[in-house]
Amino acid sequence: MSPTSRSLAWLREHGYRVAIVERRLTIPGKFVTQDLFGFADLFAISADGECALIQVTSGAHVAARVKKARAIIDASPHLQLSGLRMLVHGWSRLKKTGWTLRIVDLDPIPIPPATPEEPSSAVPDR
To answer: Could you tell me the residue ranges of all domains in the chain?
Structure first.
């Protein structure tokens, strides 16, 4: 079972509606996927309406995926201001207990709204 399949099952067990939002591209001789907005594999909605974009990976690659996703989010005011939660799911296998999920909340810091310019005190030219 892939990490994406594990996250799909986990999210559904916890009451989320989930959609896969990555695409597999047909390129001869290559296995290529394209993530939504460059990082998201899944889109999930909770029963109370909270929405999340989720990058799914193995436990060993969590740090790299967090770094990549944060760079994309930091460069996109649209994502920062979207109100969406952005998460990384990392799956690791433990010998005694089976699979474990690590969830990292990327919690972007929104860009403050632009302040209106101060009215000019200069008299306009006529």
So the answer is: 3-105
Distance CA 108, CA 126 (A): 47
Q: pLDDT per residue over 93-121, tens digit each?
A: 988 888 999 999 997 555 555 555 554 44
By C-alpha distance, which of 112, 41, 35, 109 is closest to 70?
A: 109
Q: How far apart are CA 25 and CA 20, in angstroms?
A: 14
**27-75 per-position pLDDT tens digit:** 888 888 889 999 999 999 999 999 999 999 999 999 999 999 999 988 8
Residue 101 Cα distances to 4, 41, 53, 62, angstroms: 12, 16, 16, 11
Nearest to 69 by CA among 109, 99, 37: 37
> In the numeric block, which tokens belong to residue 1?
């079972």
Q: Are 29 and 5 in contact (CB under 8 A)?
A: no
Contacts of 35 (CB under 8 A, 6+ apart): 21, 22, 41, 55
pTM attached to this predicted model: 0.79
3-105: what CATH class? alpha beta
